[in-house]
Design brief:
The protein has 501 residues and is of the alpha+beta class. Helix content is 59%, strand content 11%. It has a four-stranded antiparallel sheet with strand order 5-8-7-6. It has a two-stranded antiparallel sheet with strand order 1-2.
Amino acid sequence: MAENMMGDIIADHRERMLNLKKYYPFFKLIDISFGQYKEGRYEILDMGYIVMAILRFFIEENNFKEKDVTYPEYLEFLNQLLSRDFGLNLSDEENKDIADYIFDKIKNEGRPFEFSYFDPVEKKKRVSRMKIIESSIRENVVWYSISSDAIEFYLDTKEIKDESKINVSQLLLEKMINSQNFKGGVEVVERINEEVSRLKLKKNEVLTILAGDVFAGIEAYEEFVRTGMKWFEDEERLFKKNTDLIAKAIEKLEGSTVATEGYYKTVSEIHNLENQLKVAMNRHSELLRDCTDMQKMTDEAVRKAKLGRLRNHMDFTTTLSDMIKLDNADALVYLLNPLFKPNIRKTFNVTVIDEALTVKPERYEKKEQVSTDKPEEIVFDDEIEDKRIRDNYIFVMNNLLECLKKSDTITLKRFNELMSKAYGESILRNGDYYSFFVNLCQKNEYVIGGDGMKSDSFLDDILEAGFAGKDRVTFSINKMGDDRIQISENIEVTNVEFAVV
């Protein structure tokens, strides 16, 4: 028993921590107090309520209306919430300030929330990352959507009001497929199958009630229609949509020219998810047929009940006289049959408790085999993005230092010309290229290499790791006022001069 317990603790710990990570950002956010913001003018605001409201807003827009959200739409929603729920009548500028502040906190200023835990299998610290809001740029517009982890967190707190559990599970499944988490998608389909099984049991309960009491059965049937059958059409549509998404994922994977071990594993996971979803669809179709038959049975029971109520009493004396005259007692069948119906009310015999307590367990318990295989190394999308940003920042800084070695001063405009000449015009359209200079210009002077580097910012951490032990270079950063650099038709930046000190 002790060996099994220790095996559970060690083997299951990582999975439990990964399951807990979806709660971490919420509790991190509710620690934020508005008492220190703007001299406490917004102290009435509650971050926990605001976060849950924003999550519901994004689920409504992203999943039910099937569209992404722009920042003005978020701003309009939050303004209404602050006015309606907290009684704040603010100017447009004040509304924008508080909306920007809240959005920055929920986005964690563009970085994922990091949840650290100890992995007893690997015997080292691990970091799990999660985003609440994801963003993408299309046609020069930033679009926002809710992450699958945030949807799962919201659904764990309470199912969406008046919404089918199968529907909300399928919304989560759609997110899983889009993020290529096919293994997690199988778990969501299992949840759908459990809900279908629950509805089947509920349907059988309605039929049982209907057989015993028509009026109580009708009430139970109407409740079942309101909470279960109401969503069948939407559920069928979402099943079709997720089936199409899986087909596209298979088509995209089969178009890949590189077949690796990870490729075959992904193919297996996709086909497993496809098979599980087909099983769920078949069970859902069976439930729909059963519910159609139940509707016919209910209509028939109601019709018979209406006919039975046309005669509200019976003259037993006259009926007995008629049977004696006809010398036929067959009519007694209708009187006696209800008396011989089986007793549907079940009782529990107390003596069974003694029998249960005296049952002997198996003589030998089977030991659970604890696998010694190392779990696969998971690389998250944000880790890939962090590595790309880090490599690009070090690359640009290396080129800038090379230019400063040849000349003590250089402007951003001249640097752009040299970079486009060396690496092509496409480098000027790289988002990391300009985000590097945005972070760099937060200071008026930089020390690169040697022992004098200070780590005060996100960029400092990258440069300190990339240039540790190299020759020290100190340069100043001077903004050149109204001198602008035209990058494209819609983009221009302020020119900057870099000078060796």
